[in-house]
Amino acid sequence: QAFLQRVANGNGTVYREYGLNRGRTDLMLKWGKPFAPEEQRIVIELKVLRPKDGLETKKKQAIEQTLDYAKDCEATAVYILIFDRDKTHDWDKKIYEETLQMGKYEIKIHGL
Questions:
Q1: Listing from the earlier edge strand, what are the strands of the sheet with 77-84?
Q2: Domain boundaries, the chain
């Protein structure tokens, strides 16, 4: 969050637990005006994958939730960050990147 605040410093705002109609997205970055022709609204959803969780179940839940947030605030970019806490997983399994197209939204999923 501190990194995002530095990115937005003076030209944007980082909202934490940003309230939307049906819930709260973890982070929302509004950035760009007055120096860009249009404001960027970036939704970032954070998830923690614990050993008892299934990755595909966690992803599905995150995608549905984040897509609702993206629609509510007319996001210009959408990210899901999944932090894998399972100590039995190798780093090769924990770190990945996926891109999904859901209607007009491109959702980037990063495993960490």
A1: 12-20, 23-31, 40-49, 77-84, 105-111, 96-102
A2: 2-111
